[in-house]
TrEMBL record:
Annotated protein name in UniProt: Pyruvate/2-oxoglutarate dehydrogenase complex, dihydrolipoamide dehydrogenase component
Sorted UniProt keywords: Iron, Iron-sulfur, Metal-binding, Oxidoreductase, Pyruvate
UniProt-listed CDD domains: GlpA-like_Fer2_BFD-like
TM segment ranges: none
Molecular function (Gene Ontology), one example: oxidoreductase activity
SUPFAM superfamilies xref list: 2Fe-2S ferredoxin-like, 4Fe-4S ferredoxins, FAD/NAD(P)-binding domain
Pfam families: Fer2_4 (PF13510), Fer2_BFD (PF04324), Fer4_7 (PF12838), Pyr_redox_2 (PF07992)
InterPro entries: 2Fe-2S-bd_N, 2Fe-2S_ferredoxin-like_sf, 2Fe2S_fd_BS, 4Fe4S_Fe-S-bd, 4Fe4S_Fe_S_CS, BFD-like_2Fe2S-bd_dom, BFD-like_2Fe2S-bd_dom_sf, FAD/NAD-bd_sf
Domain 4Fe-4S ferredoxin-type: 450-479, 485-514
Length: 717
């Protein structure tokens, strides 16, 4: 079983009940209630179906209930395995071709209309949705929040790292998994707020109603006065030969497997994209004991926070700029990825191709807002506002304030006379800021007293180190007058408590001080002049520390270059931050350069020289659901002078189970290759229902099969 048993941050859930189920007739084990897809991957099964058009293998891709690539036959019904909870004795089968509807021999026995009424309906229980619910609940509105996942918190429930931002404003220095619980508890303190989980919204209707596929079993109609769309974002797809193989997966889907379900899904991965999502995914992989061969970035600079990138480099993960993936290869799943450097036109450079032996490729190419419900509501004249990523792609810290301001805007639209704190929008904009300038830090000469050394050199919104210092010795250098300013050591007093080291989200602070070396102590005892001084350095460590004192580790500088190998002389766990502080004795000349500890060896990023493969983009599937290639789409656009994306439905592009959510991000490439500006093309018409559900669910047909009419009420608000 590929399970994570000893995670440095997450606790293995002892309360989970192991059950048996069947996959293609074979009995295997899983945990009750976990997604079927996660149980299968934990058992080493990655192929979930074979496409009806060409028999191509398909597997988990988004783990978010949106792409439908994980559809399988579950108890005889085609269902998304990433959203279907596992139950005892469940019969799961690989889907070959198109599923057949089961025979329906029983007449309709029962149909039930279920509906509720609320003042404000919020779509999404992520940081923005929960923050909006808290503010609206505080004002006395009846609020119903619906989220498609089993736990509130959105992507926060996948984040084991400490957050940037301000400690006072958005819990900076606290891990995302903990912030999720804090925000949920704050919302639930208001009795007028109800949060429904496992409750995907399937449609918004003209008469100010919304449909919820509650518990993926029954249909609930919600009548509301106003709407907050805080549905977050979906990961952008990336088109390259082999991108449709099982094992090519969204970075967020990978985090779902590793951090939510504690599944050690892969052995060795390659990450495409150096935004914060890709950088953090590398960190999460290392914590799960998964090797990271590298991060590939087509641009000439890192897209995420430099402090994140430096942290990952220090851990032993190289970041290759001006590079791109050319192809993923494998029979039924990923076995190899071919990468090359690119020139200023984005074309691969001869002689630079290299092959990585990996079993997964993570796509971290950015995010697209899930704003379909907002557009739908506005077309119908429904009072609606957006919050969080549905309004602007930014960090979760910004989304919290986006939710607060959206709630105030909506209350004002509803006629409530309120005074909005003007600092909220200012704070939100600061938290959403892109990185600013970078500065060189002056070298630190270790003295006899402790002194913090800062390895954050780029302006980003972050200040927890300044707020936790018990003696106020860390200040922000006044350049912007806000938390974009860089921290520095003020004065000459440091207690060496390590609070700043433990709280730093970028693991970018160390403590140093000069100590007498062994020769110096001997010389001092004999009356000779002291010499041979050494230095102590304290470093953060967010991995398992089950090694003995005296174990030697590789110490590296800010960018990950080797400095010195030194033994651990002490280790202390700061329980409030769930972070270890490791102390080393090092050469005094190295002390202020040492920024971190290498986690994986250099050979982890080994590769073989390769040939640049022939350009197979035209023959590569662009629409995954219907297996339509890029070349087929380009030819159709040229031959038919297509100026409306809906015309592509003649090829069945966008007609598949994902509802066009994946290929809609990619068809612009086809129009450009056909010589048409995508901006001049009429966008696709949205489907009436956002996601598929059984027809019988729309009338709650067959609730008697669950044990009578009352059984259908489980999960009702």
């Amino acid at each position: 079983m590929n399970r994570i048993e000893n995670h440095p941050i997450l606790q293995s859930r002892k309360d989970r009940r192991q059950i048996r189920f069947y996959f293609d007739g074979d009995e295997i084990a899983g945990f009750e209630g976990e997604p079927v897809a996660s149980a299968l991957i934990a058992s080493g099964h990655h192929v979930f179906s074979h496409h009806h058009k060409d028999g191509a293998p398909q597997g988990l891709f988004c783990a978010n209930g949106q792409c439908s690539q994980c559809t399988m036959l579950i108890d005889g019904i085609p269902k998304k395995s990433c959203m279907t909870p596992l139950s005892e004795g469940m019969d799961v089968r690989t889907l070959y071709g198109l599923p057949h509807l089961p025979a329906e021999d029983e007449p309709l026995v029962q149909a039930e209309r279920r509906s509720v009424r609320t003042d404000i309906f919020i779509i999404g229980a992520g940081p923005a949705g929960l923050a909006a619910a808290t503010e609206l609940g505080r004002m006395g509105y009846q609020v119903l929040v619906a989220d498609d996942k089993a736990q509130a918190g959105g992507k926060l429930v996948l984040q084991t790292h400490k957050f940037f931002g301000s400690e006072a404003d958005c819990y900076a220095g606290t891990r995302g998994i903990d912030i999720a619980h804090i925000l949920e508890d704050e919302a639930k303190r208001h009795p007028s707020v109800t949060i429904l989980t496992n409750a995907p919204v399937v449609g918004i209707y003209k008469d100010r109603k919304a449909g919820i596929y509650l518990n993926y079993e029954s249909y609930l109609l919600v009548e509301f006065t106003a709407l907050v769309v805080a549905a977050g974002a979906r990961e952008k797809a990336l088109h390259f030969p082999g991108w449709d193989l099982p094992g090519v997966i969204g970075a967020g889907a990978f985090q779902t497997l590793v951090n939510r379900d504690l599944v050690k899904a892969y052995r060795k991965i390659l990450i495409i994209g150096s935004g914060n999502v890709g950088l953090i995914a590398a960190y999460h992989a290392l914590q799960a004991g998964i090797t990271v061969a590298g991060i590939i970035e087509v641009a000439g600079r890192v897209n995420g926070y430099q402090v994140h990138a430096d942290k990952i480099r220090r851990m032993g993960v190289p970041i290759s700029l001006n590079s791109t993936i050319l192809k993923a290869e494998g029979r039924d799943k990923v076995e190899r990825a071919i990468v090359a450097a690119v020139d200023e036109k984005g074309q691969p450079v001869a002689g630079t191709a290299r092959a990585y032996e990996v079993d997964a490729v993570l796509i971290a190419a950015g995010l697209s807002p899930c704003n379909e419900f907002l557009e739908q509501a506005r077309r119908y004249g429904i009072m609606a506002v957006a919050a969080g990523d549905a309004a602007e792609i930014a960090e979760a810290s910004s989304a919290m304030y986006g939710g607060k301001t959206a709630a105030m805007d909506l209350a004002s639209m509803l006629g409530k006379k309120i005074i909005v704190n003007p600092e909220w929008e200012t704070t939100r904009k600061v938290l959403a800021s892109r990185p600013g300038d970078s500065y060189e830090r002056s070298p630190v000469v270790p003295g006899s007293e402790w002194r913090p050394v800062f390895f954050c050199s780029e302006e980003i919104p972050c200040n927890p180190c300044a707020t936790v210092c018990p003696v106020g010795a860390i200040q922000l250098r006044p350049m912007h007058g806000n938390i974009m300013d860089l921290p520095y050591f003020e004065g000459n007093r440091c207690t060496g408590c390590g609070s700043c080291v433990a709280v730093c989200p970028g693991l970018a602070i160390t403590l140093v001080r000069r100590i007498p070396g062994e020769k110096a102590l001997a010389d001092k005892a004999s009356g000779d002049k002291a010499s041979g001084d050494r230095a102590q350095v304290v470093l953060p460590w967010e991995f398992n520390a089950d090694f003995d004192i005296g174990t030697e580790l590789d110490l590296v500088d800010q960018k990950g270059d080797f400095v010195e190998r030194a033994p651990v002389v002490s280790k202390r766990r700061v329980s409030s931050r769930n972070t270890w502080l490791l102390t080393f004795h090092v050469d005094i000349a190295h002390a202020s350069k040492i920024a971190g500890i290498r986690v994986q060896p250099q050979e982890a990023s080994a590769f073989q020289s390769a040939e640049i493969p022939a350009d197979g983009a035209a023959d590569t599937v662009l629409c995954r659901c219907e297996r339509v290639t890029l070349g087929e789409i380009v030819e159709f656009i040229r031959n038919n002078k297509v100026r409306d994306i809906n015309q592509l439905k003649s090829l069945r592009v966008g007609m598949g189970a994902c509802g066009g959510k994946t290929c809609s991000q990619l068809v612009g490439k086809a129009f450009r290759l056909a010589g048409t500006d995508p901006a001049e093309v009429e966008p696709a018409t949205q489907r009436p229902l956002f996601m598929e559900m059984p027809m019988g669910a729309a009338v709650n047909e067959g609730l008697h099969k669950l044990g009578g009419k009352e059984a259908g009420a489980r999960g009702a608000p």
